[in-house]
Amino acid sequence: MKRFIENLKYLKQQLSTKYEQKIARILFNYSIKLSTAESCTGGLLSSRLTDIAGSSSYTKENFVTYANEAKIELLDVSPQTIEKYGAVSEECASEMAEGLFNRTHCDIAISITGVAGPTTPEKDKPVGLAFVAIKNKYTNQTAKIEVDPHHNRKIIKYLFTQKALEILHEFLLKNYTEATKQLYESTNQDTV
Fold first, then answer.
1. Any long-range contacts for 43-46 (C-beta under 8 Å, 24+ apart)?
2. 106-128, pLDDT tens digit by residue?
3. What pTM, to 2 d.p., does this model score?
4. 40 phi, psi to nearest 5 deg
5. Are 106 and 61 within 8 A, CB to CB?
6. Which runs of consecutive H residues, i.e. helices, occur in the chain?
7. CA 6 to CA 28: how far, in whole Å?
8. Which residues contact 65 (CB under 8 A, 6 or more apart)?
9. Are 108 and 135 in contact (CB under 8 A)?
10. Pairing relation of β-strands 108-114 and 34-38?
């Protein structure tokens, strides 16, 4: 019962921060097209991003590539990468984002792959581990996510998407709003 109450408190806190709305505002204001590729979250990230009215203005294409074959065929992930590092790896997430970016010609591609549980086929890939990659024209960055493996599968998937949204929001603030603000400030200084 104690664990259940802790879960509810944590989820309430997470739900109070609407990253979807913050992200939507930036994507819309800067005319950025976004694509997603998901494995462990099964479309939940895409669903949360498209829960916002008007999301069709910034959503390009979204894929659920749960099977390794789908990652290889749809996102050009190298079979050698999956064989050497596994589907749940920084390398696989990075290749997923790269392939998605190239395939969809979006402005930003975000991918996620992980282990939502309750069991895992690989010893070194515990439940609650995920990797997120974000790719734009200039950079491809990855991040490791670790959440409490004692949550049920549905909550772990939700927490993975929450962390992915936080990472995406930070990426947008760093690479778009700041760059645009600096450009605006330097332009205004030149005219003074």
1. 44/157, 44/158, 44/160, 44/161, 45/110, 45/112, 45/160, 45/161, 45/164, 45/165
2. 999 999 999 999 876 566 899 99
3. 0.85
4. -65, -25
5. yes
6. 2-16, 19-29, 44-49, 68-75, 79-85, 90-104, 153-172, 178-191
7. 35
8. 37, 38, 39, 71, 74, 75, 96
9. yes
10. parallel
Cα separation, 14 vs 11, whole angstroms: 5
pLDDT in tens, the chain (192 residues): 666 666 666 566 555 558 999 999 999 999 999 999 999 999 999 999 999 999 999 999 999 999 999 999 999 999 999 999 999 999 999 999 999 999 999 999 999 999 999 876 566 899 999 999 999 999 999 999 999 999 999 999 999 999 999 999 999 999 887 655 554 455 555 444
Token pair, residue 87, equals 């589907």
Residue 165 amino acid letter: L
- The per-residue DSSP string of 76-111 comes to ---HHHHHHH-SSSHHHHHHHHHHHHHHH--SEEEE
Nearest to 142 by CA among 114, 123, 121: 114
